[in-house]
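Need a sequence for this fold. Nothing fancy.
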């Protein structure tokens, strides 16, 4: 599903981000990526959905060879995955329904199919009654549910989540995590970078810890392992 082989990443300003990462994530896994701020977690995540490219090494995601992928092929890779961000990244001038539909419209999906898919995923995240509202009229938790609906609308095989509960209060965060559990229970692979110690230690899954650009721990049903 996802494989990195001796992956190195250094930014143009000389900052090293990842130093020889090798890892394999199988279909259906739920993986937390943890570590101190600046350790390389976000770079690790961005390499998977080709926001960044490695300087050295090989990355394979859903059959795509990331470092050799031509720019015109990147949208095909991203159709097979959904990405959820800490700050939601909803389009402020589009309604909830339009935000979710956008992911399908850009690939030319039939309008009748779009309407059904949007209705289905909004029901699935419990916000079918918010279709006509703008994001600014929603709470933070509701906005993240819409972002998750948008990530799901293409029926992705992988969901990448970068600090998805980082801007949410504890109670709302648990509601979002229950959604991610349900998504994983359907067979979707989830890779989640997080600083939320309580969530990692309570919902025990595979934990990959990154420090100074290297994997220092990879545990089945692991713990957070940091005090921050």
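Here you go.
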């Amino acid at each position: 599903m996802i494989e990195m082989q001796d992956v190195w990443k250094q930014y143009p300003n000389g900052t090293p981000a990842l130093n020889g990462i090798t890892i394999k994530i199988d279909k259906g896994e739920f993986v937390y990526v943890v570590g101190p701020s600046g350790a390389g977690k976000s770079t690790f995540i961005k390499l998977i959905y080709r926001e960044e490219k490695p300087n050295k090494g090989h990355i394979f995601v859903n059959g795509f060879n990331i470092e050799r992928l031509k720019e015109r092929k990147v949208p095909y890779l991203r159709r097979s995955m959904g990405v959820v961000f800490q700050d939601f990244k909803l389009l402020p001038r589009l309604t909830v329904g339009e935000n979710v539909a956008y992911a399908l419209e850009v690939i030319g999906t039939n309008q009748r199919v779009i309407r059904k898919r949007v209705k289905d995923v909004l029901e699935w995240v419990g916000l079918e009654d918010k279709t006509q509202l703008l994001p600014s009229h929603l709470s933070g938790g509701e906005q993240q549910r819409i972002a998750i609906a948008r990530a799901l609308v293409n029926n992705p095989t992988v969901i990448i989540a970068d600090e998805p509960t980082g801007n949410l209060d504890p109670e709302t965060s648990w509601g979002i995590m229950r959604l991610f559990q349900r998504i994983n229970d359907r067979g979707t692979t989830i890779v989640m970078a997080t600083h939320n110690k309580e969530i990692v230690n309570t919902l025990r899954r595979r934990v990959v810890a990154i420090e100074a650009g290297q994997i220092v721990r990879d545990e089945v049903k692991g713990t957070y392992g940091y005090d921050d």
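For context: The chain has a mean pLDDT of 94.
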